[in-house]
Amino acid sequence: MRIDVIGDIHGCIDELEHLFNKLGYTWNNNLPSHPDSRVPIFIGDLTDRGPSSVAVILLVYKMVIEEEIALYVPGNHCNKLYRYFLGNNVKEQHGLETTVAEYKALDSKMQKKVRHAFISLYEKADLYLELPEVNAVIAHAGIREDLIGKTGKKVKTFVLYGDITGESHLDGRPIRRDWAKSYEGNRWIVYGHTPVKEPRIVNRTINIDTGCVFGNGLTAFRLPEEKTITVPSQQPLVEEKFKYHE
Length: 246
What we know:
single chain, alpha/beta, Purple Acid Phosphatase, chain A, domain 2, five-stranded mixed β-sheet, 6 helices, Ap4A_hydrolase, Metallo-depent_PP-like
């Protein structure tokens, strides 16, 4: 098994297509496939903030559910959009408002298609993936070693939001512990969620959310090669989104 784990896309469809091209994928019937049968894995946060969340949903749904040529784990933005589509009372902020605006601009037939696609994608997804073939665990915001193999509310919160303390920064974002520094496992933990300027490797963990929607880049991590590939973002740089991170 050879995989390409793709960081937080946040509606940046052009950069995603560019990344697939750089990774050596070819396009047939508007779907990317690799001559060496590599498996793309989407690490969550497909939507919100970026320009083309609907297009990303439809592409990932087709690859993961219809064609079964890719894998996906959900992120916190995915969880919020899922709850929105179920009709729950969620606040349209922190990026969700951009996805909702795109969705509401569609005709009713297309709205039904997009809603069905995303709900199906989310409900069929594992919370995180254990991939012994490449000695790795894929989780949106990471996972502590003692939680691997477990499920439940505590695990779900960690995987979606990180190791949150319950406290907040001045701008309202949750304060998170740097769990990666104490990770001692021999499996790769591949995650995203927190924007970093460069892929951040600590012990056997790697954060590949290089803040595409904030103007930096979209990154993939290849296993078993242990190689990162990044394409530049076409979005304006929002420097403060990176100021809390190494």
